[in-house]
Amino acid sequence: xxxxxxxxxxxxxxxxxxxxxxxxxxxxxxxxxxxxxxxxxxxxxxxxxxxxxxxxxxxxxxxxxxxxxxxxxxxxxxxxxxxxxxxxxxxxxxxxxxxxxxxxxxxxxxxxxxxxxxxxxxxxxxxxxxxxxxxxxxxxxxxxxxxxxxxxxxxxxxxxxx
Length: 162
Known about the structure:
- The protein is α/β, with parallel strands linked by helices.
- The protein has 4 helices and 6 strands, in the order ααβαββββαβ.
């Protein structure tokens, strides 16, 4: 059976056993912890015990404000109520491929292409820039007034999504 080597084999940070403190202190009764105070398990309590009692000075000095409350409670806090990514009209056609625009442009009487802004991660369509003179159906949660005017001007439609 082969001996398994640990990842730290050969590069241990421990000194050789001969040189360890334990070996040196053999024969010395208290092992370096004194006769009077004695080395007991957890004389001050475990962890953060006594923060308001016997360790108060340390907590007040190095961790002010550790105990107590501040402010008012807010039940059912929603952190992203104002989250509304936007996209401008001049970037609207980048949500679909250039091939789509060309193909739909060849047959103006046919169906208009549908651009779903919400699926691309944008909730609101804003009116900066110009649209190509090509009807398009745009789906979004919100439209600015100018965006709606410009989309309808090229013969398109705005579809509101929940």
